[in-house]
Fold each of these.
Amino acid sequence: MYLNDLNPSVKALTIAGLVFILAFLFDPITPFLYLIFVIGVTFLFGRFNKKHYLLYFSPFFIFAFGMLWTTLAFADAPSNPEQIIAVLWWEFPREDLFIAVSLSLRVLAFAVLSLLFIFTTDMVHFVLSLIQQLKLPPKLAYGVLAGYRFLPMLKTEFQQIRAAHRIRGVSQAKTIQGKVGQWKRLAIPLLAGAIRKAERTAVAMESKGFTGNRNRTYFHQFTVTKKDWLFPIFMFTALGLVILVSVKLGYFNIYDGEL
Amino acid sequence: MNSWKLKEIVVMSTLSVVFAVIYLAFLPIGKILVGFFGPIGYDLIFGIWFIVSIIAAYIIRKPGAAFLSETIAATVEVLLGNAVGPMLIVAGMIQGAGAESAFAITRYKKYTLATLMFAGVMAAVFSFAWGYFRSGYAALDSSYVIAMLVLRMVSGALISGVLGKYLSDALARTGVLSSFALGKEMRRRRAA
């Protein structure tokens, strides 16, 4: 499928660019239409577990709803207070309601863009592409990959330390002070263990000849082909069309430098 | 990057990964606080989200430590899937740049408590400027916005500055940092 085979750097930069543009738009129509478009693209051209996607996507609705009511509740005084929109039993100034809806839809639009990337990209491929296309220093990139690998191990270690405490008769703390102490007893050994492991890994990498030199070979070669350029062209054209629709409908609103 | 040892890079990344998980754990706490106090709820605990830049810079003491660690932590957060989205990476870079600016001002020579608290405050200021545009604080009442900024700066100084130093010192006492700048300094001080 197309999205999974796309060059990860091109994909990441395209999404960053789209998010950047969306961050300056304050109308409700553009993020809404683009949201639907991105979901469509993800499902049509991506290969991933659809159930997981829904699972990841649903918490964003809570976040978006939080954004909606806080923006409404703490809104600045509107410049046209006579324009009112009634929603059920409440009345809101038109301006405030539009901005609030726009900001919460924007949260969702950002979310689907991010999910498009996460669900169709392999983390290791992404880092390798960053070295090969975006000239990330290999020393840093492989260092980060090594650190990232510790993530599942940390969970086991955390459980181990807790179990070790239990076995030695450290009981569950009940007071707040006790809880802080307990947290410290867990955090320090966990961090110390992680640092030790990291140091050992670095020594192992260097002893096997890793110098961090750019002049090296790669198991996975990444290139940017003509096909890769289709993605940014397609996505930005669609955003342009959506903005055009919003302008035609008379909703379009861009950040005007208001402080 | 050439002045960095591989060991330092891997340790920095590992710290970033650990704190990325902690950052994610604090997001729901932030949301609960937001539920009670409005958007200002985040600012109460905002300092926790700068802590890795202060810890990494304090331990490794090389230019870029604050910026890189925060950027990596934010990237890992996004990869683990969070409810903020990819813009979190940009936010992390900006927070890291804020903390980094404080260390750059002291020319990467002073790592006292005051410097670390200053780094926390700078991270707060930078992240606030970003949040102002991104989250549309412009739409909020201005006295409320100022209260948010002040609270975030205090949170940055206390949570990331003071707590960050406390955690790093506790780690150094275990001896695992003996080959890093902080551990070396501690040994020198003990010998003196």
Note: Strands of chain A lie at 84-87, 90-93.
Amino acid sequence: MHEVGIMQEAVRMAIETATAQGAGRVHGLRLRVGAMSGVVPEAMQFAFDMVCAGTIAEGAKLEIERVPATCWCGTCQAEFECADFVNECPRCHALSGELRRGRELNLASVEMS
Amino acid sequence: MCKDCGCGITGDVSIGGQSSRAVSSPLLGGAHSHDHEHGDSHHHHHDDHDHGPEHSHQTVTVQKSILEKNERLAERNRGFFKAKKLLVLNVLSSPGSGKTTLIQQTAAALAKKLRLGVIVGDLATDNDAARLRAAGVPVVQVTTGTVCHLDAEMVARAAGQLDLDALDVLIIENVGNLVCPADYDLGEDLRVVLLSVTEGEDKPLKYPPIFHSANVAVVTKSDLAVAAGFDREKAIDNLHRIGHHARVFELSAKTGEGMAAWVEFLVQQRQAVKG
């Protein structure tokens, strides 16, 4: 996976945000990572420490909020969580192509001082 | 260097044999792709505003996609391609599923119907480009060095090397990889994911993000299905379970079986783009 490139961009965005706020240090990043984003959270932590080294984010904490893959069933008019990525409604067993959540790869917030 | 796949932090990307940075493109305009749009800053302070001489701890909400820069460039590509009335395909698969052969045979079948151009992505060598060039197809090779996927900026630079006004269809052959390219929109109209019969029926279940994102799934090398003990029904069922909305084709680029339906589909799609 391309976790290093992704973390590099996330840390760049965090530092840019901190600098714009007049802050001198980044203490933590909170990411929202969807189950369908294709990114492995464990590999992100590894990449994060590496990317932060030597920047104002050195030693910062990484918090990852996982977002489960959630589909919409048109028949039941209700959402359901896709177990094992299979988009089958557990109520009516219809297949759904409408993924409502689960692709997120967002920088949610930055803690700074 | 990424420990999982060898994807580099800074890749030595080259386009048509030149360093990527040296390749200008009408798709990127005069300006470089600086990503500062802070006029509408969405930053909110959550603490009190008692700013002393020391900076106080604060949490600032950002809520931005980490891939925002790529997404923005991809939208720009899409607009550019649309203005040129180009049908653009992003072709994805594992290494060795038959992307180049399919593109080569598609080009031959489309000859006299539609004008086709190709952007090929690989970590190294221009072997694929050479194969396509030998078949008379205008082609630009992007060698990504250590990067495991194409991104929208590479495509913008590479597309500038083709005479897009002389094309009807642009096929982007992505780096052979079923993981990373799933996250990178290139500005394509259709995402085409290949599954060869030799790979096994459960590929879609093993790599759900990419198969879920497919607009079209193509089962390739159908001439080898019997020898490979390929369970066709199970494979199609798995494709439907993960990529419910994807249009499925089954073909052999080698024997030509199933190619007519695929080519007819492309002609229709190009007609729809042309309007």
Note: Chain A has a mean pLDDT of 92.
Amino acid sequence: MIRSSRYFVTVMGIMALIYVGLLLAMVWAHVALVSGNPQSAWSTLTRPEIQQAILLSLGTSLLSAVLSVWIGTAIAYLISRVRFPFRPLVDFLMDLPIFLPPLVVGVSLLILFRQTPLSRLDDLFGIAFQVPAIVLAQTIVGVAFVYRTMKATFDSMPVRQEELAQSLGCSWYSAFCKITLPQASPGLVTAAAIAWARSFGEFGPVLVFAGSIRGRTEVMPVSIYLELNSGNLDGAVMIALIMVVIAAIVLSVTRLTGGVQRGGVRR
Amino acid sequence: MIRPAVTSLILAIIALVLIFLAGDRQRKIQPLASRPTLTVLCAAGLAPVMDELKTAFELEAGRRVRVAVDYKGSAQLVALQRVGKTGDLLIAADTHYHQHLVEDGLCNAPVEIARQHPCLIVQPQTIHPESWEDALISGKFRTSIPKSSQAAIGRLVASIVGNNQYRAITNQATVSRETVTQVASDVDQGVVDVGITWNTTAHQFPRTCTLDVPDWQAHRSSIGVSILSSTQDRQAAESFVKFVTGQSARAILKRHGYSSAQNDAVEAQP
């Protein structure tokens, strides 16, 4: 290795070391605080409302991830393969939930479902401040992340094979199902993992649109907020640790299924 | 296409089962889940006392009514109520917040349920400051203060010490927070030495010390309850107001460090 290359790799290594070290130190700080007062932390876990929040978090984030993958993938394929008027505008709009402050997403949903004719829908089905509001708030943001991942995946795939299949009598739908989707499956798994992780940790929009109602719309990030407001830092940190453990498990499963490490396209 | 569709379907079913289990758990721990629900929009700092009041009310109401509490910062509750127009009752950290909604016709005039006063909160091992100026302006201590624009206590303290002094406190502060609980938490965790908080918030952090400032004690903030115009069950809402202003609620509030108009009158007697 020539000398300049060694410096280059060393600088990158130092940067990686600092960042990974910081992340590990953060987790260690959590563990240290919890181990300092294990009884208080454990008693938080045994509380029924916290157990309910864990179940609700897992359920809503999983449902949001599934919905996000379907919607995000469909739009990403459309934008990647079909030319139509206002395509750049749709592409821009899909990024809105990513760069808007999360609270704004929540406020926008609340205005939409409480101040516009859509409020009739809310009156009929009970969306705002109920479980559907959690799923909707999580999905709105999740779709944007799936879209970004899947568009990059579809853009990097050659169109030639799809065209070839169509020229041999395959319908567009069949070509998508039999050629495009299998090739894009690693990207799909990555997108699903990102959507799930984002939904699992979603706080701002959920707080505003679904409320922080104990026993009704309390997901784990809301539990952390409520515990901090009650002055129970040990409890808040314990819930955060559980979130880290659950996220680590899901990420490991995703890696085992080949989504994250292989990149977006199966060759 | 079939494989992703089947996988999605299985995951969606698992998700729905988990959501159902969460709901089922709620029904088990709250047998009143199927009963009419009163939604109370409550200041997040009042969470510990409110949880207790809620349980006591449900028991006193003979479990006919269930109470769901939505906790947020008072200013946030008021702002979102203007948009959301939902819920039955509002309990903010200061009756000042209710006035905005009263003017808009979104709630009735608040009924006072408790009082609290600003104080200093310090770490036990910290050398106690001689005065609030020494604590907050001298620069000898690291301080955490509530923002006067967002927290009721910030506005109250600014009105007591004067805007110029509060500006000096703000300039000297290590950190400015949106809520008093964050300030108290800063002191509790040793992030700062001194903070400004309510006496009732300090009560939630037993590892800290409270320093009452004589000039500040007389300036009390009133916590009030209002019935929102969006209520679907005015009778139940009125019964809740009656409960939180009653004897048993007063005892719970007192246990959490809150005083009431009645208690203050008794204290004022020679």
Note: The radius of gyration of chain B is 22 Å.
Amino acid sequence: MKWPWKKRRKKLNMPEQKPQDIKELFKHMEQSDDFSHFKHQQDTMSCWISFYKTICGLESVHREILPYIFKNNVKNLMDIKANLPIEDTLVTKDLRQIQDKMLEGHMAVQMKEDDSECLLIPAPSTENRQVTNPETETSIVGPKEGFVESLDTNINLVRKRLPLPNLYLKETKVGKLSKTRVSIIYIKGIANQENVNTVWQRIKTIEFDQIVDSSTISQIITDSHHSPFPQFIDTERPDRTASAIAEGKIAILVDGSPHAVIVPTTIVDFFIAFDDYFITWHIASFIRLIRLAAVTFSVFSTPLYVAILTYHYEVIPRDLLATLISSRAVIPFPPIFEALILELTIELLREAGARLPTKVGQTIGIVGGLVIGTASVQAGLASNVLLIIVAMAGLASFTTPNYRMGNTIRLIRFPFLIAAQLWGLIGIALCFGFYLSHLLKLTSLGRPYVEPFFPPRFTDLKDTFIRIPVNKQITRPLYLRPEDPMRMNKTRSQEKRDIDE
Amino acid sequence: MTKNKKWIKGLFILLLCMNLTGCLPTDVVDDIFTVQAIGFEDAGDHKILGTVVAPIYAQTQSTNQGTGAQSQGTTDTFSAVSHSDKEVIEKLQTESQQQLKLGKLTVILINDTLAKKGIEKYLDYFNRDPHIGRNVFVAIVDGSTRRLLDNQYASNPDVSRYLFDLIQQNIKRNFPVTNLHEYFYDYYGKGINAFLPVLKKHGDHIEIEGIGLIKHNRYIGLLPFNKYAFIFKILNEPCDQGTYAIKLSRHNFVTVKNIGSKVKYKVRNGKSAKPEIFINVNLNGIITEASVQNNPQKYIKAVSKVLKKDLENKGKNLTEILQKRGVDPLGLGDQVRSYTRNWNEHQWYQHYPDAKINVNVKVNITQTGITE
């Protein structure tokens, strides 16, 4: 069968331009107006300098490079190289290398204009955002640093938390056009080598033109492309990244993205806020259980309302029957439409709030929540019981600490709603079974996604919905198959030494 | 290609499911009348008069002033005469604005003249219907069920609610546990007979008259509530509430509150013509109302003694009545069965009137309230 929209596309390759020599290369580059190519002369000495004004730091060119070029008498490029107070300079004839380096912010120096030999001096401009608070994963206690768009700064933030020679970093360039620097970070001897190889291979084989963000990478290397569930967690907290690496996970950092992708991940990770580790275990466990209850409530409350009011009036308690019936008596719609209208309203409000600037966004919440809600109830378009349920479900879904998982939860409510209308409670059970079987099949980097629950790994339950005390967490997660499973010495970690004699 | 086909197949099945179930009949909660109480009475000529009560929750624009619509609705009562219970309900549908649905049924009432002719016939339908719960109360009404149901009571305009709460709160106290499930357990069980509460309209109230004894599917007699309910309950099941008043002397009454009683049965010579059954009740109580006394310890002893004697007499009295009537709502036969090999129901009922039943109550009064 041939699909009409699958017609062969015309092959649109970039015009192949391979400059034959350096003159041609510079000529090609000069077509862009931000390219500087000029003769630098002092006394009898002269040389040709070329660079992109926009990606080289002009200040460092003027202050740290140009004054030093002719400091002593120079005869060739090696003399200039010796003069410069800059490391990582390079003399080369390789056209490919010259082109790549110059596009990264290097400056090329030639003795004569048609010399094929170039001295490449790094002078990239470092336009950077300052390290600031994390935006989406805010914490009340704990570190307030967040990743920024520069890869080197991000690696610095991680490495200073794990000052180890074993902290390995592998870097590659991904993207035909964007040539984005992508690096994976892990601890040799803790991270499972198989995981490292898998993720490295998946990144190396990415075939894509432009990598804008780490989420592009995580979408491409994900195990199942059809799943609504995110399989890799991304975080903008260096502390979370470092602690994941210390557990034996692997972090993927992408230049230009303030998010690190952590692989492999289980579903539990998406319901853990890193804040949980900064408070005592009772409170952390309590909050996690509340979060679990909130997610369950958020997914099931509206479908249950629809199912029960449409099919199963028997299960409504007697005292609630009066409230439900009298609140629904004037509503002209069946429960499903009523629920869909309100759910969509909430989704609209969310989307509008997310797209608008912060200050306007707050007003949208008030306008939407109060005005539309009460107005629709007063107009008799929605029952006030459902309004409470939907609003609470919306509120509950915000407790999900991870934005991506929050979006997934937003989405999966609608199949439940439709199933509830079609088959009642059985429909909800069916739909749940469908999602459950999907989750059971799902993997993250080949590791089971719902791991501590299935396959059951009791040792990994220590950091799920009940978080046991930190000094009792002596092993690294089993599903990562870490090469060194022990975090610390068991007996020594349990001791309390008050006075050493 | 195969992958594509799999998708299409999946989509097709999903579409089919939606088509097949899209027209499922729905019971949207505000488009039905939920029948909450139903009553049957004898209409003569082998016909029955059925009455159902469905609360009508306020259909008014109750949404305007925020606070919600908890307005106490009125009830609507429908009656019709027909041959069978199912037919009655079908007949009533023809008068009802919305569909009458039995899923929230809480009380089934049967008129005493009808109950004397046989009960099972009228309960069978409710036993079969999966929509109907098992904690439905069944009661016998002394008088017309229609008059009882078609009335506005001061305590609650919803009569079904009144009936349900009435039986419920009495079960928590002095009345033995009863509902549809218990009834059928007793009815079908071997060596055990069913019992039902008997209600009566008493002016502006409904009153529990007592425990109705059922023998072979028929209502045969009444144990008055005041006299026998408490002793019946403590002999029948463990309980932790209920009060009992005893007479110490001519003008001296005392009320004892049960805070936990347990009953144990022992059987000797189960197969013989004269089986011996020991009912041992262990009762913990507190004195809630008493006249002034000087020595509490002595007083407690005296009260315990009187209470023990009184309860044992009542128990003896009760079992004698039951034996005379040949009914066994306490399930003594069931107890004998558990002690006796090759127990035979037919034989048991022959021996039952001659059985020697000993009621032994151990009273333990723990306190006399917060004042000395």
Note: The two ends of chain B are 91 Å apart (CA to CA).
